[in-house]
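User: Modeling request: complex.
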Amino acid sequence: MPDQPVPTVPLDPARFDDPDCAASPAQPFRVGDKWTGMVLRCLEDGTPRRFTELRVPLHWITPKVLTETLRSMERNGFVTRTVHDENPPRVEYTLTPLGRSLIGPLDTACDWARAHAPAITEARASYEQGSPVA
Amino acid sequence: MPDQPVPTVPLDPARFDDPDCAASPAQPFRVGDKWTGMVLRCLEDGTPRRFTELRVPLHWITPKVLTETLRSMERNGFVTRTVHDENPPRVEYTLTPLGRSLIGPLDTACDWARAHAPAITEARASYEQGSPVA
DNA sequence: CAGTATCCTAGGAGATACTG
DNA sequence: CAGTATCTCCTAGGATACTG
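Assistant: Request completed. Predicted assembly structure:
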């Protein structure tokens, strides 16, 4: 859960004129893995959540994958991992301000998806229609 | 290029109370593949672009991958593929209104990335610091 | 409880070559 | 020019154990 090896043209406007446009190998930070967004959702209300507790709404994601996701988020500064010295152990995860700042963009994306889902479904249907036939 | 097999908890707020929260297996539409965003960038100014022309700012992406990306975008209704009956063949790609509607969210994400890149870099540095040591 | 440790697989993506 | 057709590789991510 990657600091993904990263694309070339960063998502900045593309240049067709510059012959050497490959020049700007910026390093975007990908949050596009499968689980990060959902973990964000799980923590957005501000309540600290425990490891196992997080697995529930994530449909019993395997511990390995959840650990990887959480570690990557921690490393990127999106979540804080707090170990309470008790027995049995209790570890809680919370969003940092940086992590919380991601919620806006996430909402924007989700809103877009919700708003245009019908259009996409329709586009797919007519594509399926057209391709096999014509 | 995928209609990706999709996650469970859609990116809607997560539910911890509902024991059967796995119930809503919504089908988000992922645009998170490696190239779609960048193709969007290549077409956002409205100018129709040709297949080979697109390869340039995409750092000579292989034809196979570009085709897959473009097909998926076409199927989702993001781009239009126009074949001009000439010889040699000329095919042009343009954004549809639906495709263009994605630019807003894309910008939002890019703006976030640009704004917080330093914070992330810093977080990573101090994580690298803390982990091996402590 | 909160994780490791292993093993395994699907499929995104690159390289290379060929065609209408 | 605008693509197919093949092959191959990598790795995200799942399944199944085991442990401090």
